[in-house]
């Protein structure tokens, strides 16, 4: 039975912020991060949620946080709702499966993007001048082709409703300093390579992804979400064929549908047909079950 939470309303808790997908509550010593079923595309939150999407995002992130713990610490305290503070108990049913109690890290003001394949905005940039974020790539690449080595292509982290802007590594260094920039670049590439290797064993190509890091007692930790269908492009290996767009387990299917509409990518977003909602949900759930081997009751 699909469950839908478009927006949380936990009146006894202090709402810190609403993002495109996540609602954050300040519990004093920790944050409560709740993944809703809101769906954004082209930086616009659409009017229709995707049932269970928040559960999928949370469970995939928890899967990866555990796997990547040998590479870098993360912000997870617990996802066991019964261990949450007493103030959260009235909302246990809504929090189950889609929430994490997390440490109060200080987020870095950059997105850490890793690309293993040439697609999306990277493909558009490459077509213009053969580069992506200042990195010169080999000649004659085709759309969706695997790169010789994954590349690190950071971006800014803009306010809700604004597009993040791709920047080169030098600009990132100016913004956060060389030691920190080098650290998160190395971590991003290591996490991507490990994740891509594991996903490949499950029949999934992770074409590209973005990570967020924060500082906790001056130590870099991994925060937000990790290698999910919202933060990454997931392609089925069985149908992969370089030279054009790929089938996907992520929201690219939804983006492709939206591109067929007469919509200028500004709010409000268009209402989605039930078929598109159902198909998008199915792709997210399949990504979770392929990776974790569990359905989590979905």
- Strand/helix succession: EEEEEHEHEEEHEEEEHHEEEHH
Number of strands: 16
Mean pLDDT across all residues, rounded?
94
Helix content: 25-40%
Gap between N and C termini: 7 Å
CATH class of the largest domain: Alpha Beta
Domain unit count: 2
CATH homologous superfamily assignment of the largest domain: ATP-grasp fold, B domain
Under CATH, the topology of the largest domain can be stated as: D-amino Acid Aminotransferase, Chain A, domain 1
Named CATH architecture of the largest domain: 2-Layer Sandwich
Largest sheet: 7 strands, antiparallel
* Structural class assignment: alpha+beta
Radius of gyration: 19 Å
Annotation field: number of helices: 7
So what's the overall shape? globular
Low-confidence stretches: none
DSSP strand content? 15-25%
Family: Belongs to the SAICAR synthetase family.
Pfam families: SAICAR_synt
Catalytic activity: 5-amino-1-(5-phospho-D-ribosyl)imidazole-4-carboxylate + L-aspartate + ATP = (2S)-2-[5-amino-1-(5-phospho-beta-D-ribosyl)imidazole-4-carboxamido]succinate + ADP + phosphate + 2 H(+)
InterPro entries: SAICAR_synt/ADE2_N, SAICAR_synth, SAICAR_synthetase_CS
Notes on the protein architecture:
- It is a single chain.
- Strand 4 (40-41) and strand 5 (44-45) form a beta hairpin.
- This protein is an alpha+beta fold.
- Helix 1 runs parallel beside helix 7 (274-292).
- Strands 8, 9, 12, 13, 14, 15 and 16 form a 7-stranded antiparallel β-sheet that branches. A 5-stranded antiparallel β-sheet has the order 1-2-3-7-6. Strands 4-5 form a two-stranded antiparallel ribbon.
- It has helices at residues 53-68, 92-95, 120-129, 169-176, 178-201, 252-259, 274-292, and strands spanning 14-18, 22-26, 31-35, 40-41, 44-45, 76-78, 99-102, 106-107, 110-117, 131-132, 135-136, 146-152, 155-156, 204-216, 219-223, 232-236.
- The protein has 2 domains: 14-102, Phosphorylase Kinase, domain 1, CATH 3.30.200.20; 106-249, ATP-grasp fold, B domain (D-amino Acid Aminotransferase, Chain A, domain 1, 2-Layer Sandwich), CATH 3.30.470.20.
- The termini are close together.
- The model has no long low-confidence stretch (mean pLDDT 94).
- The radius of gyration is 19 Å and the shape is globular.
- It is 30% helix and 24% strand.
- It contains 7 helices and 16 strands.
